[in-house]
Design a protein that fits this description.
By secondary structure, the chain is mostly helical. The protein has two domains: 78 residues; 57 residues, no CATH class. The longest helix has 13 residues. The two termini are 33 Å apart.
Length: 158
């Protein structure tokens, strides 16, 4: 993830690699949707492009991306697929509503820069994914509460 690790591939580089046949696709996890848009524009449909950012599924699809590979799909896969399917059916308003409905959970899971909040959410759904391993730490009760609240809003918990 460019924002976390400080490594980015410029859209022009992606386009050159695509043109020369070195890549067939890319998962773009850049926080700036303009970055994804520029990759889409420069590669001219020659490669498969997925967004890796939960909050940009619908915007990326509208710009010409092929889909999404994002963390939240591990905890609410049906909702991610529904955004995609609604877009494919040209039900943009409904896709937008579904996209907006996941923002609260995205924010709760993004409250730390590790996977532990995601693991906590998955545990809340009844799956044993183990405890935090060093160097990560357990999620605070406050963050757990936010995750639980957002899962309830989405109808995943009672």
């Amino acid at each position: 993830w460019p924002g976390q690790y400080g490594v980015d591939i410029e859209p022009a580089t992606v386009a050159r690699l695509a043109k020369d046949g070195y890549i067939q696709g890319i998962k773009d996890s850049h926080i700036d949707i303009d970055h994804t848009a520029e990759i889409i524009r420069l590669t001219e449909g020659k490669i498969t492009i997925w967004t890796g950012f939960e909050t940009k599924i619908l915007p990326a699809l509208c710009l010409g991306a092929d889909g999404a590979v994002c963390t939240i799909g591990n905890i609410i896969p049906k909702e991610v697929v529904e955004i995609y399917n609604l877009f494919q059916e040209s039900k943009i308003k409904e896709a937008g509503e579904k996209q907006l409905s996941i923002f609260g959970l995205v924010n709760a899971l993004s409250s730390r820069h590790d996977m532990q909040p995601l693991k906590e959410g998955i545990k809340m759904l009844g799956y044993d994914v183990g405890d935090a391993l060093m160097p990560t730490t357990e999620v605070s009760p406050e963050i757990k509460g936010k995750i639980r609240e957002e899962l309830r809003k989405l109808g995943k918990l009672e």
